[in-house]
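Researcher: Next entry in the queue.
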Amino acid sequence: MTATAPTAILQAFTEAQPFVQEQDFSARQYRGKRENQEDYYAFADAAESGEHSLQRLLLVVGDGLGAHAGGSVASYIAVNAFVRAFHEHPGSQSFRLRTALDTANETIGMITARMPSIAPPMGTTMLSVLITRQQLEWISVGDSPLFLYRAGQLLRLNADHSLTPIIEERVRQGLITPEEAAVHPERHTLQSAVLGYPMALIDFPPEPMQLKSGDIVIAASDGIFTLEHKALEELLSFGKHTTADKIADAILFAIRRINFDRQDNTTVGVVKIS
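Model: Structure for this entry, 274 residues:
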């Protein structure tokens, strides 16, 4: 009992430590080949009463829909509405995540209603992550990915609300070839987004996910998919030896080196669990 006490004390001390900006959490953006940066993100302190500041983080990523009017405006408005609503509403963390998403969606709807009827609606994807050193909760709409890198393996956690999963299922069924799927014109068409209307699909797990020391959490916009899954996984293998800001820099550097002629806006938010 006495021998294990120092370990328990050290673990409790580590779990109580606040996150440190750039060392433990960071984000970077790349405009790519687009004229405008239509992604927007925000980190916010989500510490509860009695907790240290930055002991709990909220990260929200919005990818404005380029085919719609004001994609950059939509992502900016929706992300800020989400963060404000999360802080203003009482209740459990889970309830506040869902309420904040509904508020962001309603805000976009109110703005769209004031626009000329001939204008296309504003819209954005939305990925919202609530994280401590022990656990992770998220709510997402659209195709912006949430990844967990753990023990050498990279796993996507949230659902993809584009048509990509449907197209890939057609490949598995032998209905189309992988080559046809890769260039399918509807591959990135969204089934659900924050547009001010009822959201068709929402990914919102009922229970938090437990985290482990050494985990790396990445919340991004879909521009990150320029990197193949294996390439991103291999890139992250050095993550345990460096800081969150260096990981984000390395991901964007790898994307820039590919120099894809239709590179989308890319946002990468990184949180390291120590």
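Model: The CA atoms of residues 60 and 176 lie 36 Å apart.
Researcher: Noted, moving on.
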